């Protein structure tokens, strides 16, 4: 039997999330069992099932947690700028930095997005809603072209995902810097009243 550690409930949940992230990223979703996750987290299997009734629930919680980080990065980038161009540039930089910080887990983010779509949960929907709100604020301030807000948010989300994928594939710091410049240029062409 695996040795369990004494932790408060939030500590147990965090330990499970970290263990799930490590094991899913390293062994794949199908190759990981709930028992392995419990052992890695240092919790009893029953505790794991009380907090997450199945692997899919754990995968969804991991996705939500990663999406929260990208939402925080998006908002922090927005707040770091003062006009449309500087806000877009800062958002792109913060998002790519967060992707780099989570490099090992990024394949898991893509996996979860593809696996956990349901009528009740649409991966990326919360991030798209944040982007939509920031875009509408930028339009009201006269910084951005006026587009349909839903289409603009979907376009921006697609630009972000493409940039993150390109950054993950970039092997050197100079290649990652080039991806950031390209991402910022695409944002500017898509949304600014005066491109570049």
Notes on the protein architecture:
The structure is a single chain. This protein has helices spanning 9-27, 34-41, 45-51, 55-80, 84-101, 106-115, 125-140, 149-169, 173-191. It has 196 residues and is mainly α. The chain has two domains: 9-53, Arc Repressor Mutant, subunit A; 57-191, Tetracycline Repressor, domain 2, CATH 1.10.357.10. The longest helix is centred in the middle third of the chain and has 26 residues, at 55-80. The chain is elongated. 32% of the residues are buried. The mean pLDDT is 87.
Structural class, by secondary structure, is mainly alpha
Strand content: under 5%
Radius of gyration computed on alpha carbons: 19 Å
CATH fold-level label of the largest domain: Tetracycline Repressor, domain 2
According to CATH, what is the class of the largest domain? Mainly Alpha
Spans of at least 5 consecutive residues with low confidence: none
| CATH architecture assignment of the largest domain | Orthogonal Bundle
Strand segment tally: 0
Number of domains: 2
Oligomer: single chain
The ordered H/E elements are HHHHHHHHH
Number of helical segments? Answer: 9
């Amino acid at each position: 039997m695996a040795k369990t550690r004494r932790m408060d409930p939030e500590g147990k949940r965090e330990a499970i999330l970290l263990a799930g992230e490590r094991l899913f990223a390293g062994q794949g979703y199908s190759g990981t069992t709930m028992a392995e996750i419990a052992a890695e987290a240092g919790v009893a299997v029953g505790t794991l099932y009380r907090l997450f009734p199945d692997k899919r629930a754990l995968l969804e919680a991991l996705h939500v947690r990663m999406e929260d980080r990208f939402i925080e990065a998006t908002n922090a980038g927005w707040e770091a700028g003062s006009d449309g161009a500087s806000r877009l540039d800062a958002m792109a930089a913060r998002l790519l930095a967060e992707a780099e910080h989570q490099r090992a887990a990024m394949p898991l983010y893509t996996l979860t997005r593809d696996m956990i779509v349901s009528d009740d949960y649409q991966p990326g929907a919360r991030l798209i809603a944040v982007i939509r709100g920031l875009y509408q604020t930028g339009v009201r301030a006269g910084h951005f072209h006026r587009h349909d807000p839903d289409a603009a948010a979907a376009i921006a989300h697609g630009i972000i995902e493409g940039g993150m994928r390109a950054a993950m594939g970039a092997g050197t710091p100079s290649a990652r810097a080039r991806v950031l410049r390209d991402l910022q240029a695409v944002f500017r062409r898509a949304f600014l009243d005066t491109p570049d």
